[in-house]
């Protein structure tokens, strides 16, 4: 547990903590946080999305495992969305992104390092497969919905025009083509994509810290706490039901997916909320709360 804390949890907290300190000391303000997130949305995130799919080898994926995981993730996404909308009366845009927060894990920076520390390279392929397909469906489809919702006069041509200007959607589609056709990227392109992609999560977490430093302390915590509980408790329970019990996959094979299900809320919902002008306070706090509680949940799934 101490090794997990020192190697995977505290480094992530440190980036958000520096953002929090920068916000409290007025070195950075909310406008600067918005600029950082805009940078993430238009440059590192498309690079990361393209790289994940372009280098994915779909023929090596364990598809029953992936289908079981994404059934559980879709269920949690819908649950979080409906609770935010019907119970907490949030608007549709925020409810959708709270659903993303409840379902989409911080698999790249949090779960993967922990899994590699505990189990070695054997866990790399299933977790990378989840990350790749997650980027295509959870991120891609959510952005499609958000783009449609933000149009003043939705029409087929307007939707296509908006999507064609969304760099992440374009990057996902091109990356998918590269991956399916097994087109090898030039070495220089790979270095560039990896270099740019590496800035995605740190920049998003730093901006998250700035936003948290400026959040209203009187804001109720019931909503973010509920999303955190759904993420780190409900999601792994549904994942066990679908993957282990439903698809009859052994716990040893299912373990990487179960650890991802038990991981904290990813920063993706926060990045999208900022760029689509959606309220971010509940999403930011849900990410923070789930980072703390997922230490135990991921450890339990690792021992399952």
Protein described:
- There is one protein chain.
- The protein has 304 residues and is mainly α.
- It has one domain (2-302): Up-down Bundle (Na+/H+ antiporter like fold).
- It has helices at 2-24, 30-42, 44-54, 63-87, 92-103, 107-119, 124-149, 156-164, 167-181, 187-197, 200-213, 222-246, 251-261, 268-275, 281-302.
- The mean pLDDT is 89.
CATH class: Mainly Alpha
Query: Under CATH, the topology is which?
Result: Na+/H+ antiporter like fold
- Identify the CATH architecture: Up-down Bundle
Task: Report mean pLDDT, rounded to a whole number.
Answer: 89
Distance between the termini: 15 Å
Helical content band: over 70%
Instruction: Give the number of DSSP strands.
Output: 0
Uncertain spans, ≥5 residues at pLDDT below 50? none
The structure class reads mainly alpha
Radius of gyration over alpha carbons? Answer: 18 Å
Order of helices and strands: HHHHHHHHHHHHHHH
Strand content: under 5%
